Structures are given as structure tokens and as C-alpha cells.
Automatic annotation (TrEMBL):
<dbReference type="InterPro" id="IPR027417">
    <property type="entry name" value="P-loop_NTPase"/>
</dbReference>
<feature type="domain" description="ABC transporter">
    <location>
        <begin position="336"/>
        <end position="571"/>
    </location>
</feature>
<feature type="transmembrane region" description="Helical">
    <location>
        <begin position="248"/>
        <end position="268"/>
    </location>
</feature>
<dbReference type="Pfam" id="PF00005">
    <property type="entry name" value="ABC_tran"/>
</dbReference>
<keyword id="KW-1003">Cell membrane</keyword>
<keyword id="KW-0067">ATP-binding</keyword>
<keyword id="KW-0813">Transport</keyword>
<dbReference type="GO" id="GO:0015421">
    <property type="term" value="F:ABC-type oligopeptide transporter activity"/>
</dbReference>
<dbReference type="GO" id="GO:0016887">
    <property type="term" value="F:ATP hydrolysis activity"/>
</dbReference>
<keyword id="KW-0472">Membrane</keyword>
<dbReference type="InterPro" id="IPR039421">
    <property type="entry name" value="Type_1_exporter"/>
</dbReference>
<dbReference type="InterPro" id="IPR036640">
    <property type="entry name" value="ABC1_TM_sf"/>
</dbReference>
<dbReference type="GO" id="GO:0005886">
    <property type="term" value="C:plasma membrane"/>
</dbReference>
<dbReference type="InterPro" id="IPR003593">
    <property type="entry name" value="AAA+_ATPase"/>
</dbReference>
<dbReference type="InterPro" id="IPR003439">
    <property type="entry name" value="ABC_transporter-like_ATP-bd"/>
</dbReference>
<dbReference type="InterPro" id="IPR011527">
    <property type="entry name" value="ABC1_TM_dom"/>
</dbReference>
<feature type="transmembrane region" description="Helical">
    <location>
        <begin position="133"/>
        <end position="154"/>
    </location>
</feature>
């Protein structure tokens, strides 16, 4: 029942609705006591032959009145309690979502998307059930059970009440045993569901790869297995759950047996009237629901607790990259200086970057080249604070990156990642992602700079063409250029192109770069590229190898060095020549 305490903050927040709901619930529990009593009274009158028509009509009116009152009250407590519990899942869902958006890439590296989705769906609905049906069953079973027992003991016979309660301690033991069994099995079932979710998400995202390699059958088989696992684990839950009801029925049956056996004796002795025995057994019938509800309550609460534990653990995950209290509320501007002694990715043993010391004046262009895996992207990710925890510092405009609010830092940097992502929205909306208020002229200007304007005009609906999962298929180069336009629309202090021109041909690349040079005068640009022609004009070029700078200088400086850069440059020129047949 700890989960009710843990949800205390919510009940407090919604106390009006809960108090009224519980109050109405108690009224209904009391009203329920009336019909059995009335039946007993009528039975006695019939037995004694004193029944009159007027009396019967009177009691029937009372019964109808009680039924109507219960109907109305039940309607209102349902609205109050169930209505409030929906709010709980809304609050938790929003918290989770906000938390998800605040988490850094390191978190997403270790979490599985399907699992996160399962938290946001299945777990939240289990918690909502606890706050709704859980509270209802708790209050209802305790109050109905309590009132019925009181009515039996005080208005009929305390002796018979004690006798019929003899099997109850067994029930309490069984209930608690069922509870712990359910908790374990439910946790496993939820985990299996998470895995299945993850598998489905991954397969659908990777469907093209699956098809390309003809792995459909294997994938279907894998899905079938996981789906089977979910079923099996839920069957275990259902089996434990199903054991509960028959067990309760037997215990209630024993109670009935005891009360009729002893009740009959009391009637014969003259301690009890026949009508009272009828009322008593009818009351006993009313106890079945609270007992079943108790088992049900365990089930709901155990599910709720398992889910709340999972969600709470997720919400406790620290947001690693945050603003410190005195962070500057200004958009950074100026020189950029890397002074990094060492950077190691979380969980890795070896440092990836070592002894990086690079300075760039505002308005200059930095080119970063080197083999795949040499650390180019990592260097950029540190600048946008996707990762931290390096020894050393990075300064921007004289201040450390951490001195600025994250939001302001990122406002200064237009980052075009390698794995560009387009949303299922129009081309215009995708470009205006960073500034939805941008005018169509501004969007077009950015698109022209990124050399994608003419392509867009060719699409059926021009700038209004929908792209992404449900829209037109774009080539890799088109996607790259839309991503670049998106960054250019911000007109950022620093434009970061992370191998963002890899899918366009050399001529388009040159056209884009030269229009950037003309239009971004005074602004800083950082480019990583496999094609050295892309960074040839940079003010400073660094060559990375195994996370260290092995060569640095301008294109001319590097050509004189006879190192990696020169060799690569000549090699690429030759390649170009071969490709174009020497023209
Ligand atoms: P480049 O851009 O030069 O190809 P990267 O900076 O992308 O190189 O990657 C350098 C190395 O860091 C690679 O060996 C890669 O496996 C590793 N790496 C990249 N991202 C991560 C990460 N998020 N966590 C752990 N290792 C990473």
C-alpha cells in the first residue's frame, strides 16, 4: 500500500475531489445496508402473518428510494475519483516528456526507445488505475466490509458474526501471498512488454535494411518469440489472478455454511428470528464483493507500484547537462578556444581526445579533417555541450561554455549533424524549425544559400510539400541541404557543418561554400569533411588522428608539410580527375 503514500502529493492536490468522492462512496456503503434489513423485516412479517399491503408498498418505496439514491451517488463518485485519476496520468506524462526532452544524448545511448515508450504508456495507465480503481476498491471494500460486519454484529447477532468470520484470517494470509506473487509476475510481464515494444520500434524503423537483406522471416520469427514471451508472462499473471476468485468463493462458501448451520440452531433456540437469519445471510452475500475487491485491490496496487517504481526511477535519472545558477543569459559571441587535456566518452576506458589546443577568431573558418573515427564529430559535440566531463575548458567569447545558459549557447550555434532528421511536415516548416515565425522570404533565402531552392520548386507542392515518413522521398543530398538551410535560417554566430556535404557532388559543394563565404562575412564557420576541397579555404585547418592534432595550418602550410593532408589532397585530386576523365 506504500504506493498510496508515494502518490500522497497527488491526492493532496486533488483533495477536494477525493474527499467528496470518498464521502459519497461511504454514503453508498451505508445505503447498501438497508435492503437486506428490509427483506428480513418483510420475511418476519410474512412468517408471523402480520404483513399488510400498505406495509409492503411502504417498504417497496423505501427500496426504490434507496436504489435511486445509490444510482445517483455512484455516478458522482465515479466522476470524482476516476476523473481525478486521469489527471494523474496527464501530470506524470507531461513530467516524463519534459524529462525526456531534457536528457542528454548519453541517456538515450543507454536507454531503449521501446522501453521509454512502454513507460509512457503502459506504466502510466497502471498508475492511473491505482489512483482511480485502486482508491475506489480500497475505500469501498473497507467501508462496505466494515459497515456490513457492524450491521451483522450489532443489529442481528454478534455471536453468529464471529462464527462466520472464522475463515477470514486464512483469507488475509492468502491475499498477502497473492499480492507478492502478483508483484513479481507483473514486473516481469511489463519488462517483456518493454522488450517487445523496443523490438517493434526497431524493426519498423529498420524495415528497409531488413528487406534489403531479406531478413523478413527471421524478423517475424524473432517478433513471434518475443510476443509469445509477453503472452506467457501475462498468462502467469492471469493464473495467479484467477486463483484468487475461486479461493475467495470457497472461503465465502465456508462462511455461508457456518452461518446457516449455526444460524438455524439459533433460530430453533429462539435466539434469532427467521427474518434476521435471512437478513444475515443477505449481508454475508454483500461481503463477497469487498473480499473480491480486496484481491483486485492487491492486483491493481501491485501493478501500480511496479509501474510507479519504474517511472520514478526514470524521473530520478539526473539531467546531466544543465545550467548553473549564475549562467549568463546572453547569446555568446567572439573567439572560440579549445583547451582540452583529455576527453573520454562515458563508459569508455580510453580517452578519445587528447591535448587539443585550438583557437579560432570570430569570423574565421575552421576546417577539421582526419580519418573516420579520429574524433572530428566529438570535438563539435563538445562545443554544443552534448557531452561534457572533459579535462580542460572550451571558451567562447572569453567565457567558458558552461557560463552561458545552454539555450543561449545553442542559439549561437547552427549545428548541422551528420544524421540529419526531417520531420513529417512541409519543407518550409522543416526549414523554419528553429524559428516558426520566419517569413517565406527568409525561408527561401536560407534555401537559396543552401542551394536547395531550385530542387524545392520542382517538388509537387513546392515549399508546402510534405517530407518525412509520410511524404515525398528525398535524396540524401537534398536532405542534407534542407538541414543546412534550417541552420542558416538562424543566421547563427557559428555555423557547424559536420560532414554535411558528403552526399552532394563537388560542384554543388563548391557553390554552397562560396555562397556561405559571401553571406556569412564576420561569422564563424566550422566544417568537418572527408573531402578536403570543402575546407581548402579555411583560415585554419587541423588534422586529427586518434583524437590528437597531428597537423595544423592553412591549406598552403599543410601542403608544404608532406604529411597526411598533402597525401590525401593529392590522392583526392587524382580521384576527381579519374572520375571526370581528365576534364
Ligand atoms: P569522426 O567524426 O572523426 O569520424 P567521431 O568523433 O564520430 O569521429 O568518433 C570517434 C570515436 O568515438 C569513434 O571510435 C566512435 O566509436 C566513438 N564514439 C562516438 N560517439 C560516441 C559515443 N556517443 N559514445 C561512445 N563512443 C563514441
Amino acid at each position: 500500500m506504500k504506493v498510496f503514500l508515494e502518490l500522497g502529493w497527488f491526492f493532496k492536490q486533488e483533495k477536494k475531489a477525493y474527499i467528496s468522492g470518498v464521502f459519497l462512496l461511504l454514503l453508498v456503503a451505508m445505503l447498501q445496508l438497508v435492503p437486506p434489513k428490509v427483506i428480513g423485516i418483510i420475511a418476519d412479517h410474512i412468517h408471523e402473518g402480520t404483513i399488510t399491503k400498505a406495509m409492503l408498498v411502504e417498504w417497496v418505496i423505501v427500496l426504490i428510494g434507496v436504489a435511486i439514491a445509490m444510482y445517483v451517488l455512484r455516478y458522482y463518485w465515479r466522476i470524482m475519483i476516476f476523473g481525478s485519476s486521469v489527471k494523474l496520468s496527464k501530470i506524470l506524462r507531461n513530467r516524463l516528456y519534459q524529462h525526456f526532452t531534457n536528457m542528454s544524448p548519453a541517456f538515450y545511448q543507454k536507454s531503449r526507445v521501446g522501453d521509454l515508450m512502454a513507460h509512457a504508456t503502459n506504466d502510466l495507465s497502471a498508475i492511473q488505475q491505482t489512483a482511480g480503481a485502486g482508491v475506489l476498491t480500497l475505500v469501498d471494500s473497507l467501508s462496505t466490509g466494515g459497515f456490513v460486519i457492524i450491521a451483522m454484529a450489532f443489529t442481528i447477532s454478534w455471536k453468529l458474526t464471529l462464527i462466520c468470520l472464522i475463515p477470514m484470517p486464512f483469507m488475509a494470509m492468502l491475499t498477502s501471498w497473492f499480492g507478492s506473487m502478483l508483484h513479481k509476475s507483473f514486473y516481469k510481464a511489463q519488462e517483456a512488454f518493454s522488450s517487445l515494444n523496443d523490438k517493434t520500434q526497431e524493426s519498423i524503423t529498420g524495415i528497409k535494411v531488413i528487406k534489403t537483406f531479406g531478413q523478413e522471416q527471421e524478423d517475424i520469427e524473432d517478433f513471434r518469440k518475443q510476443s509469445e514471451d509477453v503472452v506467457q508472462k501475462n498468462i502467469v499473471v492471469a493464473k495467479i489472478d484467477s486463483l484468487y476468485d475461486p479461493t475467495i468463493s470457497i472461503i465465502v462458501g465456508i462462511s455461508f455454511f457456518l452461518s446457516i448451520a449455526f444460524g438455524a440452531k439459533f433460530v430453533l433456540n429462539g435466539d434469532l428470528s427467521i427474518g434476521e437469519l435471512i437478513s444475515f445471510t443477505t449481508y454475508l452475500g454483500l461481503l463477497i464483493w469487498p473480499m473480491l475487491a480486496f484481491g483486485w485491490l492487491f492486483n491493481i496496487v501491485e501493478r501500480g507500484r511496479a509501474s510507479y517504481d519504474r517511472v520514478a526511477a526514470l524521473l530520478r535519472e539526473k539531467v546531466e547537462i544543465t545550467d548553473h545558477e549564475k549562467a549568463l543569459d546572453t547569446v555568446p559571441y567572439g573567439d572560440i578556444q579549445y583547451q582540452i587535456a583529455e576527453f573520454t566518452y562515458p563508459g569508455d576506458a580510453q580517452p578519445l581526445l587528447k591535448d587539443i589546443s585550438v583557437s579560432l577568431h570570430a569570423g574565421e573558418t575552421l576546417g577539421i579533417v582526419g580519418k573516420t573515427g579520429s574524433g572530428k564529430t566529438t570535438l563539435l559535440k563538445l562545443l554544443i555541450r552534448e557531452f561534457e566531463g572533459y579535462q580542460g575548458e572550451i571558451r567562447f567569447g572569453g567565457q567558458k561554455l558552461q557560463d552561458y545558459k545552454l539555450e543561449k549557447l545553442r542559439e549561437a550555434i547552427g549545428y548541422v549533424p551528420q544524421d540529419h532528421f526531417l520531420f513529417s511536415a512541409s519543407v518550409a516548416e522543416n526549414i523554419a524549425f528553429t524559428d516558426p515565425t520566419a517569413t517565406i522570404e527568409e525561408i527561401e533565402r536560407a534555401a537559396k544559400l543552401a542551394n536547395i531552392h531550385d530542387d524545392i520548386l520542382q517538388f509537387t507542392d513546392g515549399y508546402q510539400t510534405i517530407v518525412g515518413e509520410r511524404g515525398v522521398s528525398l535524396s540524401g543530398g537534398q536532405k542534407q541541404r534542407i538541414s543546412i538551410a534550417r541552420a542558416l535560417l538562424m543566421n547563427p554566430e557559428v555555423l557547424v557543418l559536420d560532414d554535411s556535404l558528403s552526399a552532394v557532388d563537388a560542384k554543388t559543394e563548391e557553390a554552397i561554400l562560396s555562397s556561405l563565404r559571401q553571406n556569412r562575412e564576420g561569422k564563424t564557420t566550422i566544417i568537418t569533411s572527408h573531402r578536403l576541397s570543402a575546407i581548402q579555404h579555411a583560415s585554419l585547418i587541423i588534422v586529427l588522428e586518434n583524437g590528437q592534432v597531428i597537423e595544423r595550418g592553412t591549406h598552403e602550410d599543410l601542403m608544404e608539410l608532406d604529411g597526411w593532408y598533402k597525401e590525401m589532397y593529392l590522392h583526392q585530386q587524382l580521384e576527381e580527375l579519374v572520375e571526370h576523365g581528365g576534364h
